[in-house]
Design a protein that fits this description.
elongated
Length: 341
């Protein structure tokens, strides 16, 4: 997980990110949100048709490393049939620091376990040496037992994970999105320019970001463990942009980080467990159009968008497998991306 100082350094590096930048204004915020009624490394590649049917949903990417500068050039078509192109640049040093902040190491977990055992043993030895009562020993051990899960949870949270019931670790998606929103601002600025030029409505702009993650980024499943580090089969947003690929979790985090640059945006993450793997999509606060798939959360409707690709699905449309997972007996879990969401 990115520390504030690391984030500041990355934002400085992002001065190189795009050739053209545009200010995010109040007009964009008003346009984007419709208020509810009643409250791995890829070589350069040529264009590819992601639809499989020649529908015109063409996208291309060119991923290069120029003397320690990562350059990712993307071109894609949005649902308005407009072609969008941008180039994202990231120096190697801040990129390595960014990647180094995410994922947890089993050695660190083992150190916490050793601390727990050693502290309990030390409490016993101290009780014997000081002639303490059994109640005093029990109280000391109870305090150590209370601190251990707190230390474990704090370490995991610092590495981008949350600890759930049953000692199950899961990606802390709300925190990942919150910290990566300013890093993804350059891409949001590109979408703002296109939206302003073409007078997009709110979901047109959402659809432009959705088209990018669906079609311009390849779909690929990250390793659960990479170079000795547990990743949760997830790569964070900047890594996905630099490498040019990601899975459903990674693409969802990237899309949400981009769209979070609208001050009025409200989104939720929707995690669907599954065997062998689950699935992740995004919900955008919006009045659904006829036929849109949405979920109700705290009395508000969130239209579902499917970031995974490679299918070219506009906001409100999802794949058959996703629909089946939403309706499965296991249900789904909601991640509100910001307080009050």
């Amino acid at each position: 997980m990115l520390a504030p100082r690391t984030t500041a350094a990355l934002l400085t590096a992002l001065a190189l990110a795009l050739a053209t930048a545009y200010r995010l204004g109040d007009e964009w915020n008003e346009r984007l949100v419709q208020r509810p009624i009643d409250g791995g490394w890829l070589a350069a590649q040529a264009d590819f048709d992601i639809s499989g049917g020649g529908s015109g949903a063409r996208a291309s990417q060119r991923i290069t490393n120029l003397g320690g500068l990562h350059v990712a050039d993307y071109t894609f078509t949005n649902f308005n049939q407009d072609r969008i192109r941008f180039t994202y640049k990231m120096p190697d040093e801040p990129y390595k620091k960014y990647n180094g902040t995410y994922g947890y190491y089993p050695e660190a977990i083992k150190q916490l376990q050793d601390w727990h055992q050693n502290a309990r043993q030390a409490a016993y030895q101290n009780a014997v040496r000081a002639g303490q009562s059994q109640d005093q020993l029990n109280a000391a051990v109870a305090e150590i037992d209370r601190q251990y899960p707190q230390k474990l949870r704090a370490y995991l949270e610092s590495r981008g994970f949350t600890l759930e019931a049953g000692n199950v670790t899961r990606i802390d998606m709300p925190q990942v999105v919150k910290l990566n929103a300013p890093i993804m601002k350059p891409i949001a600025l590109v979408l703002d320019r296109v939206a302003t030029e073409h007078r997009y409505q709110s979901m047109d702009t959402v659809g432009a970001g959705l088209s990018f993650v669906q079609t311009a980024l390849q779909y690929k499943q990250p390793d659960d463990v990479y170079q000795g580090k547990h990743t949760g089969a997830f790569i964070p947003p900047l890594t996905a942009v630099v490498l040019g690929w990601g899975n459903c979790d990674s693409k969802s985090a990237l899309l949400a980080s981009i769209l979070s640059n609208w001050a009025q945006m409200r989104m939720i993450g929707i995690f669907m467990p599954g065997n062998p793997v689950g699935h992740y999509v995004i919900g955008v606060l919006q009045i659904p159009d006829q036929g849109d798939v949405f979920v109700d959360y705290h009395g508000l409707k969130y239209v579902i968008v499917e970031p995974a690709g490679p299918a070219w699905l506009p906001p409100g449309r999802i794949g058959d497998e996703t629909m089946a997972k939403l309706n499965a007996p296991e249900g789904y879990k909601i991640d509100p991306f910001f307080q009050g969401g």
